[in-house]
Design a protein that fits this description.
Number of domains of chain C: 1
CATH architecture of chain B: Orthogonal Bundle
Order of helices and strands of chain B: HHHHHHHHHH
Oligomer: heterotrimer
CATH class of chain B: Mainly Alpha
Shape of chain C: flat
Number of strands of chain C: 0
Radius of gyration of chain C: 21 Å
CATH superfamily of chain B: MetI-like
CATH architecture of chain C: Orthogonal Bundle
Strand content of chain B: under 5%
Number of helices of chain C: 8
Chains: A alpha/beta, B mainly alpha, C mainly alpha
Largest sheet of chain B: none
Largest sheet of chain C: none
CATH superfamily of chain C: MetI-like
Structural class of chain B: mainly alpha
Number of domains of chain B: 1
Helix content of chain C: over 70%
Structural class of chain C: mainly alpha
Strand content of chain C: under 5%
Radius of gyration of chain B: 20 Å
CATH class of chain C: Mainly Alpha
Helix content of chain B: over 70%
Order of helices and strands of chain C: HHHHHHHH
Distance between the termini of chain C: 55 Å
Shape of chain B: flat
Distance between the termini of chain B: 49 Å
CATH topology of chain B: MetI-like fold
Number of helices of chain B: 10
Largest interface: B-C, 50 and 59 residues
């Protein structure tokens, strides 16, 4: 059963508490040059998803839905399965049981002869077109300069012409404030700069869903704010569906429409950030927040 | 000694054959290394089994034994090779097997995060290998490849035993003709040493280039244990 | 022409006596390589930099020139200097000396591979230098190099056919001579190749177990 576009527990983008700025359409002229993706954003739905590593159950029959364009932050103690959710969505891991839906198509399975079978590489390739990911450790390609990191995917996967890919890369680098580093090598950049390039690289693939996996955890403290501000702007100016795993509670509060609190592979509590951070209902959430905010 | 110096052109002709043998065998070995090394990193059971079989078979047999086998045995079942062809085939297959292990180990040693970033960019499996993994693995391959190249050059001396007129073969001829045993062998040892050092310089140059390409600081000083182990013509590999 | 099992059976005793020579030469050469390698390593750690450098280049010279030529040098040249060796003895010495330059490199790299922090921790504990070497550095270095030293034993085994270049009747030469008599070289050479492959595969499995057992990090 494909998920409906919106589900009762998830607010639609219109209902979501956003600044008025959030839905400002970008100028109609030269839409191809606007760096941020817009239009037909899919939602995400987990149906009884189980993930084990060896004998260790990381996700147990997990159900949740993210509405199109919704911005959701996953919080919880380490080992609670947050990062696994992002890695499943990026097809870096396979589900052991259950189904993941992106829009109205199953990510983990495909139809063949009327039966649902595990997805093959071709299906995964098709599904990954909608998803982009920014990693904790940036993972820029050290054998390519900044420009090629940004054009490699568009040219060889999306089939964009090289000129257009370069043009788009310039726009994105401009947006992340690194226009002057276009020819630099990843190793010549600071951690914060590398992460900005990695964000631009993910956006260059024009994903509809963006996954942020503890993107500031590996940065020196003084570089964290710059990257967070950038992501805040991106969240505000695009209608990307955003899934974010972070330990920065202020950032989580700013960026998300909804917060999911995880523990031991299940959702303990969910709600708008004001509620989760202001008046959590569950003891486990209170304990976790106290521990995180104390450090 | 003067007899040896008079016959120096003969030795030069021999060293030219040695150099040719080295280059032809190295090209063959490199192609086989990449082919079977990459096969060894794939997920499919069949390609991995093929790669494993090639490596174990041709790494297990010494180049000289392979050479004798190609040269003396196979003609008896109708496969006839020229000595030069048998030699290049034996050396190439043998060193290709060592090289395949180096390639496989180097690709596996590229951080898993790089593979994951390539998946996240939706590159196809072939693009991941060609554009992300292999270019980074090259930097890891070069030092052990350098060792293998020198080993291969040294191993060419055995072709004299199947009557190819390489440097060692010419030396034996000269020794028989002049009786200047010490001078002849000392001379060709130096010639082999010079060839080895030239190859060494070439490899160092390539290492510096790939280090620059990857934005790494060139390594200084002497090779690390992993490199020494990987260059062992025993069973080593990287990682 | 097809495979002749009777003939294969007839030459087998010859091949086995060749194999005995091959194994003896490999093992004795290996002992020389292990001991002499340590000598090279120590000689490159003297207070005199010039001396260390000279030793380094001598070892480099031996390492980067063909074993076959060195064997010929030992066997054909030394008698002219009044030192006549049997072919097998010359072969064992040549094999051992050649590979000692490899084991020296393994020892050096193994010592260098012990993390700096270990030296620093030992210094912080104010251990005497001799003690640091004996109870901190060498035990760790030794663990690290065992698999690599094992590799070189296999490498020497596979290089032992070169001894036929100086008339030693080892495995390959015994096969060649047996086959040359009857002009039937398919069976003996195939058996030799098979023997080498079997020994190498089995020993590489052993080395892999060693590697797992002594794996660091």
């Amino acid at each position: 059963m494909p998920p409906t576009d919106t589900t009762p527990e998830a607010p639609t983008p219109e209902e979501a508490p956003k600044t008025p700025l959030s839905k400002t359409p970008l100028p109609e002229t030269a839409p191809s040059k606007t760096p941020l993706p817009h239009g037909d954003t899919p939602g995400i739905r987990f149906e009884k998803v189980v993930k084990r590593f060896g004998g260790n159950v990381v996700l147990r029959e997990l159900d949740f839905t993210v509405a199109p364009g919704e911005r959701v932050t996953l919080i919880g103690p380490s080992g609670s399965g947050k990062t696994t959710i992002l890695r499943l969505l990026m097809t870096l891991e396979k589900v052991d049981d259950g189904v993941i839906w992106i829009g109205d198509r199953s990510l983990s399975h495909m139809e063949r002869g009327g039966r649902r079978v595990p997805a093959n590489e071709k299906h995964l390739h098709e599904m990954r077109k909608q998803v982009g990911m920014v990693f904790q450790q940036f993972n820029l390609f050290p054998n390519m300069n900044v420009l090629r990191n940004l054009t490699e995917g568009p040219v060889h996967v999306l089939g964009v012409s090289r000129d257009e890919a370069v043009e788009r890369a310039r726009g994105l680098l401009d947006m992340v404030g690194l226009a002057d580093k276009i020819d630099a090598h990843p190793s010549q950049l600071s951690g914060g700069q590398q992460q900005r390039v990695a964000i631009a690289r993910a956006l260059a693939m024009q994903p509809k869903v963006l996954l942020l996996d503890e993107v500031t955890s590996a940065l020196d403290p003084e570089l964290v704010v710059g990257v967070q501000d950038l992501l805040r702007d991106i969240a505000r100016q695009s209608d990307l569906t955003l899934l974010c795993v972070t330990h920065e509670m202020h950032f989580a509060r700013d960026i998300s429409d909804r917060v999911l609190m995880f523990d031991q592979g299940q959702i303990v509590e969910e709600g708008p950030p004001e509620q989760i951070f202001g008046d959590p209902a569950e003891q486990r959430t209170r304990d976790f927040l106290q521990a995180v905010l104390a450090t | 000694m003067s007899d040896v110096l008079d016959s120096f052109p003969l030795l030069l002709r021999g060293s030219w054959i040695t150099l040719q043998l080295t280059v032809y065998s190295a090209v063959l070995a490199l192609a086989l290394s990449l082919l079977f090394g990459v096969l060894g990193t794939t997920r499919g059971l069949a390609p991995r089994a093929v790669s494993r079989f090639y490596v174990e078979f041709f790494r297990g047999a010494p180049a000289l034994v392979l050479m004798f086998w190609f040269f003396y045995s196979l003609p008896l079942i109708g496969l006839r090779f020229t000595p030069m062809f048998a030699a290049v085939l034996a050396l190439g297959l043998n060193y290709g097997a060592y090289g395949a292990e180096v390639v496989r180990g180097s690709i596996n040693a590229v951080p898993k995060a790089q593979y994951e970033a390539a998946v996240a960019l939706n590159l196809t499996p072939a693009q991941r290998m060609r554009r992300v993994l292999l270019p980074q693995a090259v930097a890891l391959m070069l030092p052990p490849f350098g060792n293998l190249l020198i080993e291969l050059m040294k191993a060419t001396a055995v072709v004299s035993l199947v009557t190819i007129a390489d440097l060692m073969f010419r030396a034996q001829q000269l020794r028989a003709a002049t009786g200047e045993t010490a001078a002849v062998f000392a001379t060709i040892l130096v010639m082999y040493f010079v060839i080895a050092q030239l190859l060494q310089l070439l490899v160092r140059y390539l290492e510096r280039r790939t280090d620059r390409m990857l934005g790494r600081r060139p390594r200084k000083g002497q090779p690390e244990l992993r490199t020494v182990a990987a260059g062992a013509p025993g069973v080593g590999g990287v990682g | 022409m097809s495979w002749d099992w009777n003939y294969t059976g007839e030459i087998l005793p010859d091949l086995l006596s060749g194999l005995r020579i091959t194994i003896a030469a490999t093992l004795l050469g290996y002992v020389i390589a292990l001991v002499l390698g340590l000598v090279w390593t120590l000689l490159q750690r003297t207070p005199s930099r010039a001396f260390n450098l000279a030793v380094h280049w001598v070892a480099e010279f031996i390492r980067s020139t063909p074993l076959l030529v060195q064997l010929a040098f030992v066997f054909f040249v030394l008698p002219g200097w009044g030192l006549t060796l049997s072919a097998l003895t010359a072969g064992i010495i040549g094999l051992g000396v050649h590979y000692s330059t490899y084991t020296a490199e393994v020892y050096r790299a193994g010592i260098a591979d012990v993390p700096r922090g270990q030296w620093e921790a030992a210094t912080a504990l104010n251990l005497p230098r001799r003690r640091v070497w004996r109870s901190v550095i060498l035990p760790q270095a030794f663990r690290r190099v065992i698999p690599t030293l094992g590799n070189y034993l296999i490498a020497m085994f596979k290089d032992s056919p070169l001894l036929m270049g100086i008339t030693v009747v080892e495995l390959l030469n015994s096969a060649y001579q047996a086959g040359a008599k009857s002009l039937q070289l398919l069976e003996p050479l195939t058996v030799v190749a098979a023997l080498f492959i079997i020994v190498s595969v089995v020993s590489s499995l052993i080395i892999r177990r060693l590697e797992r057992r002594y794996a660091t990090n």
